[in-house]
Amino acid sequence: MDDINQEQQDFGDNPLETRKTDHYQEEYIQSFVEKWDELIDWDARAESEGRFFIDMLKARDKHRVLDAATGTGFHSVQLLKAGFDATSADGNAEMLTKAFENARARGLVLHTTHADWRWLNKDIHGKFDAIICLGNSFTHLFDENDRRRALAEFYAALKWDGILILDQRNYDGMLDHGFTSKHKYYYCGDQVTAEPEHVDDGLARFCYSFPDGSQFHLNMFPLRKSYTRQLMKDVGFQKIKTYGDFQETYQETDPDFYIHVAEKTFTPGESEND
């Protein structure tokens, strides 16, 4: 995919009709990327999620990790600081440039690769112990064939006992009960709002409003939790455990985000989380 350098996002005459996987390139324009860290708030994000991902990877003795949705680099930096051998991939070159700058400002050097998940194994080398795909990034894929292909590429890029950690917004709650957010775990910038302008079974259009009055939008596909889990099973993952806002137990309507941990191997006697 080519880089998009433009002043404004372009959703055409009717933004609600823009439902294409590749359109995210036109959504993450440079001015939006430059503001992304205001939305994340690295310090607040680190405090809210704690060592959840680090401890999960270390408990499973994983070392070589692909951050498949690097964004501005938050999780790649956390991985490097914790001693992991991390590779940072993203489909948007503007994001990778910002991630590299963020890491360098912290005395770290990212190993980056510009990659499209649908052809991931053309752009990466070797097998990984784990792949993380975080920040609701998987919901940029609007076509089911794209979702299946991306998951199959993740599966193929993992070692025989590898794991995939993939998160998503709680679109079930959004579709069934309306949007609510604790604004606590993922998007922690207290001066930024991220709320849907429109939600239907095929589109969640979010508006991001910043203190200086600027606004940006993202169009995403509202994945239901059970559907995502089934896709993971369909491509071959044997065991899937789903957390709600980093918790093992939760009421279905409570979490802002679900985190799926999918394993390639299944140990007899273990129970699969539903």
**Helical fraction:** 25-40%
The gyration radius over C-alpha positions equals 18 Å
The CATH topology = Rossmann fold
Task: Indicate the proportion of strand residues.
Answer: 15-25%
Overall spatial form: globular
Gross CATH architecture = 3-Layer(aba) Sandwich
Number of helical runs? 10
**Strands in their spatial order, largest beta sheet:** 3-2-1-4-5-10-9
Quick one: CATH class?
Answer: Alpha Beta
Mean pLDDT reading: 91
The CATH superfamily is: Vaccinia Virus protein VP39
SS-derived structural category: alpha/beta
Largest sheet: 7 strands, mixed
Low-pLDDT sequence parts: 1-5
**Number of E-type strands:** 10
Number of domains: 1
H/E element string?
A: HHHHEHEHEHEHEHEEEHEE
Report, as a whole number of angstroms, the end-to-end distance.
Answer: 36 Å
Characterization of the model:
- It is a single chain.
- The protein has 274 residues and is of the alpha/beta class.
- The chain has a single domain (29-263), classed as Rossmann fold (3-Layer(aba) Sandwich), CATH 3.40.50.150.
- The chain has helices at 24-27, 30-40, 42-49, 52-59, 74-81, 93-105, 120-123, 144-157, 171-177, 225-235; strands at residues 64-67, 85-90, 112-114, 128-133, 158-169, 193-200, 203-209, 215-220, 239-244, 257-263.
- Helix 8 (144-157) crosses helix 10 (225-235).
- It is globular, with a radius of gyration of 18 Å.
- The chain starts with 23 loop residues before the first helix and ends in an 11-residue tail after the last strand.
